[in-house]
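Q: Given only this backbone (168 positions), what sequence would you predict?
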């Protein structure tokens, strides 16, 4: 699974309240959620990014409430992956469940500048900074997590599993 996009950088402790502000929780429309992605950090975020762009963030990304709409808003806004020093565990699992790659990679924040072109090869365990010409190894992704991501999220994964007679 390869992803390619432009880097958007943010710091540590970006919580779900700024990724997707609570005042919008009354809507269940993913496109409406996308319109408000990262609104608490950067106004007009969705209009600045292109489909497939990558967030490179610091520690504890997605801390705060357990709302899955934060990950959903990022995915529907067009974010192709989030690369973080570390994730709040609930955000991490919510991202995987909706098919948004969430990659922990220590030290990546200092290796990328906003606007750099990045390629992430999840199968090969590699992040490439195409702008700077640098490659970085990733810890191998769990096979089960990769199956969920390749299926497009937990619901499509389990739906396919059920249709196949319960086999993986």
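A: Predicted residues:
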């Amino acid at each position: 699974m390869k992803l390619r996009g432009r880097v958007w950088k943010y710091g540590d402790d970006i919580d779900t309240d700024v990724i997707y502000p609570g005042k919008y929780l009354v809507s269940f429309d993913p496109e409406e959620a996308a319109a408000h992605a990262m609104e608490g950090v950067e106004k007009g975020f969705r209009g600045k990014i292109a489909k497939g762009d990558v967030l490179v963030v610091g520690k504890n990304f997605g801390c705060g409430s357990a709302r899955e709409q934060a990950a959903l808003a990022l995915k529907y806004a067009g974010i192709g992956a989030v690369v973080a020093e570390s994730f709040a565990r609930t955000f991490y699992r919510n991202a995987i469940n909706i098919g948004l790659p969430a990659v922990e990679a220590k030290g990546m924040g200092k290796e990328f500048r906003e606007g750099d072109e990045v390629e992430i090869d999840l199968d090969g365990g590699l992040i490439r900074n195409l702008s700077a010409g640098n490659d970085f190894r990733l810890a191998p992704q769990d096979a089960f997590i990769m199956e969920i991501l390749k299926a497009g999220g937990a619901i499509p994964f389990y739906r396919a599993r059920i249709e196949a007679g319960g086999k993986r």
